[in-house]
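Reopening: structure tokens for the flavin-adenine dinucleotide complex, inputs below.
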Amino acid sequence: MPKFVVIGGGAIGLNAAYQLARMQAGKVTLLEKGQVGDGSSSRAGGIITGLLWSETGVLARMISLRLYQELSEDLEQYGYRFQNVGCLNLFDPASWAEREELLPLYDRLEFGYEILDAVQIRRRWPDLTPEADLIGLHDALGGYSEPHEYVPALARRCRDLGVEIRENARVSGLQIENGRVAGVQTAMGVLEADVVVCTVHAWTAAFMERCGVRLPIKSFVHQRYVSSKLQERAAIPAINANPYGGYIRPARLGTTDFRILAGGETEDREEERVDDPAFHMLVLSAPRRVRSLLSENLTPLVPKLAATRWETEQVGLISFSLDSEPVLGTLPQLPGLVVGAAFHSGGLAYSPVAGLLLAELAAGETPSVDISSFSPDRFTKEDTDAYLATTVVQADAFRRRH
Ligand SMILES: Cc1cc2nc3c(=O)[nH]c(=O)nc-3n(C[C@H](O)[C@H](O)[C@H](O)COP(=O)(O)OP(=O)(O)OC[C@H]3O[C@@H](n4cnc5c(N)ncnc54)[C@H](O)[C@@H]3O)c2cc1C
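Re-run output (same inputs, fresh job):
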């Protein structure tokens, strides 16, 4: 029976393990250096949209949205449901011009969307008061995935499907035999595998460099907040509110506890280098001013925010590749390894399809989407070295939201 080792217990690794188990591909072991959900996945905003900027991205997200519906059914007994409230992507007239050019792509791929003006937006969601000149691109299939429900439910489902999840099991390197990956090295010794799937997110660049491969990936601190309890549910969808400097969505702590979640970048902050294999996201913090700035910026869009305060904060990392597209695939110099990383601020949205694609590659099947534009091998050595030699601030990295 083939043996698969998945490194990393976040949404991407769990979905890869889940898909391998569903395919009955072989024995699946997932190794997590700390606890499942220790990384960005449990800190995410969880906003999901299919309306991306590349053909591969849109095709992949179409599968993710379908899989989220299926996960809703499969994980219901574990307390998870995808919240299909729709996703509204907001644009000011200047940024709309660029997005409008993508509409023929959405039409060709038959991805449904609606273009709404401010009056239509107010009419549909009475709790929203957008500026008169804003344009909304609505993705009716989008919504959000509540991370504190999604990650534990996936882990429990994986275990029930026979995946062995080992926590406190850091992988220190790859075991190479006869020119191919034959397992992973851990403090407990070598764990043999026919294929290793690496999903260690912000740790990827340093991990791969120790294995002799440089990948042009950088990470940035990112934060999101959940408000105090609302009197009643906010009538809003998930919103990528770029003109307001952030994103916002309804949040639930239970079936009757309704809140608002919001987040955004810290423009002037330098990239975060994750060189220490033992790095933990708990050491990250966000400047206090982010909270008040988010309230100031977003309250004109969602006046209900004025009656709340931010009650909880989550700080994590988002990772971008040199061209801002994900890094997903195999590497010719390391046969037996499949990598999935750099999902910008959309790793939760990508997670079901990323898991499927990683599992298909690991099992030797043809991936459901042509992912050549995500290939880890697409960067030249010169571009990679030059990119890694620079230090970038968040404002100069790509702004690719969810
Ligand atoms: C504040 C915030 C808001 C976000 N909002 C959204 C959003 O609205 N929508 C969206 O789609 N995405 C969002 N994201 C992005 C999303 O969270 C990430 O893209 C996604 O979680 C990446 O998943 P992952 O499984 O690759 O990484 P992680 O969840 O970080 O998992 C990687 C795991 O690997 C483990 N690991 C590392 N090294 C090793 C090793 N050597 N051995 C074993 N285990 C190891 C880590 O401990 C970690 O648990 C947000 C991120 C942040 C920080």
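The domain at 3-396 is CATH 3.50.50.60 (FAD/NAD(P)-binding domain). The chain is about 25% helix and 25% strand. Marking as resolved unless the reporter disagrees.
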